[in-house]
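pinging the channel bc i need a second pair of eyes. not urgent but kinda urgent?? the chain im working w is below, pasted from the shared doc
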Amino acid sequence: MNKTILVTGGAGGICSAICRGLAVDGLNVVVADFDEDAAQNVAAEITAEKGHAIAVQVDVGDANSVAAMMEKATAKYGQVDYAFCGAGVMDRVPTVEMPEQMWDRLMRINLKGVFLCAQAAARHMIARKEGRILSIASGRGVAGQARSAHYAASKAGVIAFTKSLAVELAPDNITVNCVCPGATDTPMSRIGFTPDQFKKREEIPPLMDGLTQKFEIVGLVRYLLSDAAKYITGQTFFLRTPK
């Protein structure tokens, strides 16, 4: 297999697992992250296991930075077959106490970042009439989230953007889907919880409100990149029923 996937937020908890898992499958992996050192560490782990990966620093909210990321990816591997827009942040604060700057920062990364990265990937893929674009949304984008209204709003935007872009890119044989993991044991998911509060979630069945395992998310991504899913587009895949 000589396919390349670009993963933004690639040094994060969920996305680093995706990078490692797809490298094992034989894909070339572009580990793109704002934290260049962390991205370098993930890429080094992959190459140490005989995989193929490079690290690229990117600010997903800046169009010039995103363009530079695509240039580095294509310079190394020739083309990007798959793009996974996974960069995201989260805060927990009541809406009435939320500073405007906090809202703007999160929207810039979680929603504008998906737009810019998907746009850049689509422009590259349209020329070849082939490609797949995936993003991370959330059940909170459907059900809402107290103390994280900006996060829920950004993920609702990702879902709507996914459906819209899928319609636009269907004539070019490019699929666009988003995955909605349940709460996963990552530093971002732990924000706003004490260690004891978070530990209780580990004791709850995942289909209720327990933790989604990273390998389950990687498995879903594998499916959406497989031949079996080549006609699936504009869909939102939940690993737990939103409530």
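so The helical segments are 13-24, 36-48, 63-77, 100-126, 140-143, 149-169, 195-201, 214-225. and The chain has a mean pLDDT of 93. — does that match what u expected or am i reading it wrong
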